Amino acid sequence: MKENIFVYAVCGSEKHIATFNFSLRHLKYFTGNPVIVVTDEARNKGKINHDNILNVPTPHSLTDKEASIWLKTRLPEIVPPGNTYCYLDSDVIAVSGRAADVFMHFNPPVKFALDHCPSDEFSPWAVRCECIERDREKHERYLLLMNQYRQSEEKYIERNVPKREVSYKRFIHLRDVMTDFKWKTSITEKNIMLKYFLLLFRPYPYRFGTFLKRHGGYEWDRWKRRIYDTDGTLLYDDADPYPDFTRFVEEHFAPEESRKILAERKARDSFKVRCTHLHESIRNKFNIPEPEPKWRHWNGGVFLFNETAKEFFETWHRFTLEIFSDPYWEKRDQGTLIATVWKQGMQERNPLPEVFNFIADYNSENLKFDPGNGFTRDNFSTYIHPHLVHVYHHFGDKNWPVWKWIESLI
Ligand SMILES: [Zn+2]
Q1: CATH code at 4-123+277-375+382-408
Q2: CA 329 to centroid of ligand 1, rounded, Å
C-alpha cells in the first residue's frame, strides 16, 4: 500500500542526534505517519530514539556533516519505492496537528518550499568569495542593532500592547494615526505663531484629540494622558516606556522616515551583503545557465519526493560531491540545490506553502512573534500559523519567545 512517510537523514555528534530526537518527539506528537531515519550508525555519538532505522554506511573520507548531506541527496536510492516521502531536516519542528497535510501538496518528482531570501543574499554564505569578510563590520553592526531593537520591542509589547487580538489591531492602527499626527504637525511644532493661528482658524487636523476622534473614534484623556478605544478599552498610556521605544527606532532606523516598517526595510537593505559569486561559479563549474540573482531559491529543510525524483537527486548528489572537494565552496547542499534546479529548468515550479517550512529567522526585522497569536510580517495586522517550523539558528535558545513557545507545545 502506498504510504505517506516522513524521513530524516542524520548522523554524527551527540548534539545533532539530540536535535533530531527533539524534532522526532514533536513530529510523533502531532502526526501519526510512519517515520524512517536514514543514518550511518558507525558515526553516531548519541542514541536515536526510534526503531525504524535504515543504516547506510557512508564513505570514510567524509566528515559527519558531509555524510548526512551524502545520505540526504541519495534518499530515493535508499528508501523503499512506491511511497510519498517528506524529508525533514533535524531542526524542522512540527508545531501543529496539520503538519501531515504537507503530503497533499505533492506533485512529482519533487516539491520544496522557498528559502527566506533571494539567492544573491545567500551567495556570500555558499562560496568563499570574501564578501562577508569585506562587509563583516557592517553586518555585525546590523545584527547588534536588530538585537537591541527586538529586546526593546519585546519589553514594550509585554508591558503595553493589549492582549486581545481586536485591541491589538486597534492599537497598531492607533499607533499609525499618532505617527500621522506627529508628521502632519511637525511644521507647527517649530513655529509657535503658526500653531496658534492654525488652532484658532482650523482646529482640525492640528488638535490631537480631534485628530484621533476623526481617525478611528479614539478618546484622548488629556489629563491622564491616556487613549481609549470606542468601547472604553485602554489602548495607550503615555506614562509607559513607549517614548523610549520610539526614540530608539527613530535614532537608529528612521532619521527621515516616520513609518517604522519602511524605515526598517531601508535599514535592512543598507546592511545586507549581496553578491553573484555563487551564480558565476555555478555557471562555470557545472556549465549551466547562470541563475537569476533575484531568484528566491529553494530551501533544503523540507521536501516531498518519490521514486520519480531519481534523476533530480542524481544531479544534486553528483554536484554536491564535486563541491566537497572544491575549497571555494562551503560544504553544504543548498548551493548545489540551486544548480540542480536551474540545470533541470525547474526554477518556475510552484513551491510548497510556507507553513510547511516556516523559517523562524531570529534576525528578521519584519518577522515578529506573539505567543498568543503567532507570527506576523505586517506588524500584527495578520498572522501566519505554521505547521512545521524551521529553527535554523538559536535552536534551544530559552530566551527566545519562539523557542519557549515551541517547547511549551508538548
Ligand atoms: Zn561574493
Answers
A1: 3.90.550.10
A2: 11
